[in-house]
TrEMBL record:
Residues 1-19 have a biased composition (Basic and acidic residues). InterPro entries: F-box-like_dom_sf, F-box_dom. Residues 313-340 form a coiled coil. This is F-box domain-containing protein.
Length: 636
């Protein structure tokens, strides 16, 4: 018992043996399941009845039946007593097939004649390959596979009668042409067979065997080669007759089909796509039988119903393709308007395609994509589009004015700035603010950004991605904007500043270290980290310059960015020593240098991934920004 357990443990430790045991268990499980399921109904037919049915079919049909199940394969292939079925099938085939060679079984012979073959040269499956039975050669009938095989695996016999060399060398006439129109012609045999026979002859010659004696020693091989050549000629003749018959049947059946199509006013190719007629047409072609109207007419009602269903599907597909074409034209128009800048405020594309004039053109099923392109370039369409955009902007402004506390405001003078263009009018998308932060996209939005905002996880064509109800007032950005205006002694209506004044830096006191930013967008994004951000102004005399856009540059997919991310040239601003006293006014500013030495010792250099990890673990900064790090000068 102990020895048996040791052997089992040894087998389990051996990977190859364990794999074999697993395969055996799986095969046993499959066999048990098949036994419980039992044979199919076709396999339950009595032997006499099955043989009688198959006696009216051809070799190709019997071959297909033999591959339906394991039971039928064993019945038709493994039992020699079933050879009479194959012989009868060969006789029933159009252009009866001659007997196979003694070394071939009936099923293997049928497989050679009817199965698709794998090209010996390129490995693709060809249903009608160039085949040569005597050379065991199957290559693609098109292309230069035959030419390549002749040059790589063929041997050209240097005389017209190849049997004069050694009678058992099988050589055949081959004419091949390459894609560059170069060709070759002559008797060819397999190079491997020729080389093997020549090695045998050299070995026999070394032992004193003459050429005549060597040929006598291979009389059986010579007789076998002569049978193979004769069988190759029979197969070639049979294949040529069958191909000619197939072409004539296809021509005849196509003629009858076109007459049937003309009588019913249908399309020829559409008729061949209907299930009933397609199967009928293919069955006639494979069995090499001519088609007649007396066979088609009983199927007329079924075919007519299928043609109506096909026409309905074709119409739906055409309408869908045309709508996609119109949608592409709308996308091009939207991109063109963005590039030209003729509209200062454009809605998001999901809203743009729902505007009245655009939606009317987009949903018009009768309008072709080419006609839609011409219509969208007309002055009347652009005029209506301008009106639609103006109405849409007014509706959104009325809703947003309620959020900023000016619900009764009416904009009468276009020369005066609109309250929604103030730097204190900041909004946030409640639907995707968390996802936007993870994707390093802006969270605080101006009115112009709000109109074209697309949620971080929404598709381009989603109609549910944009809604004015998704936005709320960004109170944090509003508070820091008001505080900044107070420091700069400016009013809201006088300050439509996209950027800060020159030489104005903002130092965040809510963060440890020297976290400095010099852009208004950076301030609006940074304030999202704190509940109540405290900051002050000081002059731009920093030792380490602020690299605006450095984070986006390092996170891009360029190869140069991938290399830059690995360089340890980044320092942490949170680890720098803050100034002793803050500067509250621009007049009282004093030069303040951010030193490389902090309370934690000498500043450490990081690569980009290391910097992100350091900021998250040491300072609790979840999403890195430009103000969190700086590039250490090379000379330091």
């Amino acid at each position: 018992m102990a020895n048996k357990e040791k052997k089992t443990q040894k087998k389990q430790n051996d990977p190859l043996e364990a794999r074999r045991m697993k395969r055996v268990k799986l095969e046993r499980k499959k066999a048990k399941a098949a036994k419980e399921l039992g044979p199919d109904r076709f396999s339950r037919l009595p032997f006499e009845l099955l043989a009688n049915v198959l006696s009216f079919t051809g070799s190709g049909d019997v071959l297909s039946v033999a591959r339906c199940s394991r039971h039928l394969c064993g019945f038709l292939v493994d039992f020699p007593s079933c050879n009479f079925i194959w012989r009868q099938a060969r006789a029933n085939t159009v252009f009866p097939i001659s007997d196979p060679l003694p070394n071939l079984t009936e099923s293997a012979y049928a497989s050679i004649l009817f199965d698709p073959k794998v090209c010996e040269q390129c490995g693709t499956v060809a249903r009608k390959p160039f085949s040569m039975f005597s050379l065991r050669l199957w290559v693609c009938d098109t292309g230069s596979c035959l030419y390549d095989w002749v040059n790589q695996k063929g041997y050209k016999v240097p005389f017209a009668a190849p049997v004069q060399a050694f009678p058992w060398i099988v050589a055949e006439m081959i004419s091949a042409r390459a894609k560059n129109n170069s060709s070759t012609y002559g008797f060819f045999c397999r190079k491997s067979d020729h080389d093997r026979i020549m090695r045998e002859f050299e070995t026999a010659s070394a032992r004193g065997v003459t050429r005549t004696d060597f040929i006598k020693m291979h009389e059986f091989d010579s007789h076998k080669a002569s049978l193979i050549r004769k069988k190759n000629e029979e197969i070639d003749l049979w294949r040529k007759l069958r191909i000619g018959k197939e072409h004539s049947i296809v021509y005849r059946n196509t003629t009858v089909t076109r007459e049937f199509v003309t009588d019913n006013n249908w399309d020829f190719w559409a008729l061949l796509r209907t299930p009933t007629f397609r199967d009928f047409y293919i069955m006639k072609k494979r069995s090499l039988e001519e088609m007649s109207r007396t066979e088609i007419d009983p199927l007329l009602e079924v075919i007519r119903k299928e043609m109506e269903e096909l026409a309905c599907r074709e119409k739906m597909r055409t309408e869908r393709d045309e709508r996609e074409g119109r949608l592409r034209q709308v996308e091009k128009l939207y991109a063109r308007l963005q590039t030209q800048g003729s509209y200062p405020t454009l809605p998001a594309f999901s809203v743009f395609k729902e505007l009245g004039v655009v939606a009317m053109m987009l949903n018009n099923r009768k309008k072709l994509a080419s006609d839609a392109k011409k219509e969208m370039a007309s002055e009347g369409f652009l005029s209506l589009l301008t009106d639609n955009i103006s109405v849409w902007i007014d509706n959104q402004q009325r809703t947003l004015l309620k959020l900023v506390g000016q619900s009764n405001y009416t904009h009468k003078n276009d020369k005066q700035p609109h309250p929604l263009t103030f730097c204190t009018a900041r909004f946030i998308c409640m639907k995707c603010k968390d996802r936007a932060a993870k994707q390093f996209k802006p969270i605080s939005l101006s009115f112009f950004d709000l109109c074209k905002h697309k949620c971080a996880d929404s598709s381009k064509t989603s109609s549910r991605g944009w809604s004015i109800t998704n936005f709320a007032l960004d109170q944090k950005a509003v508070n820091v904007s008001k505080a900044l205006l107070e420091m700069l002694n400016l009013k809201e209506e006088d300050a439509q500043i996209p950027e800060l004044p020159v030489n104005t830096n903002i130092l965040c006191e809510s963060c440890e270290g020297m976290v400095v930013m010099n852009t208004l967008s950076g301030l609006h994004e940074h304030c999202q980290r704190h509940e109540n951000m405290i900051f002050h102004l000081h002059a731009d005399v920093l030792t380490h310059s602020l690299n605006v856009g450095l984070r986006d540059e390092l996170m891009s997919r360029k190869k140069s960015a991938e290399k830059m991310r690995k360089d340890k040239t980044l320092g942490c601003r949170h680890c720098l020593k803050p100034p002793a006293t803050p500067n509250l006014t621009l007049e009282e500013q004093e030069p303040v240098h951010d030193n490389l030495v902090s309370d934690r010792g000498t500043q450490k250099a990081f690569d980009f991934d290391g910097m992100r990890s350091h900021l998250k673990t040491r300072h609790g900064v979840e999403f890195i920004a430009d103000e969190d790090f700086f590039r250490i000068p090379v000379y330091q």
